[in-house]
Amino acid sequence: MGMRLTPQSYKKGFELSITAPVRGKPVLQAAATALVGALLLLPIVFSGHPAVRIFTLMYVGILMEALPFMLLGSCISGLLEVYVSRERLLAYLPRNPIGVTVAAAALGLILPVCECAVVPVVRRLSRKGLPLSACVAYLIAGPIVNPIVFFSTFMAYRWDLRIAMTRMLFGFVIAVILGLIMRRIFKRQYAFLEKANASEAPVAGTSPASPIVTAIRHASDEFMRMAPYLMIGAALAALAQTLLDRQFLHSIASIPIMPSFVMMLTAILLNLCSEADAFIAASFRGIIPLPAQMTFILTGPIVDLKLILMYRTMFTPKAILILVGLSLAALSLSVFMLEAIGGAL
Amino acid sequence: MKLSSWAKELRAFDRVLLCFFWLISLIGMIAREDYTLFLRPQLVFLPAFSFLIFFAFFLVEMQRSDQPRIEPQGRGIRWLILISPVLFLTVARQATLGDAEFDQRWLGGEASMPATASRPPWMTSRSSPPTSSHERDLFGEIYWHPEPYHHQKVSVLGMVRRLPQITEMHGADAGLVYRFIMNCCVADAVPFAILLPEGLPPDASDGDWIHVQGKLIYEPTPPFNIMRIEGAAATPAPTPRNPYAF
Question: What is the ipTM score, two decimals?
Answer without folding.
Answer: 0.86
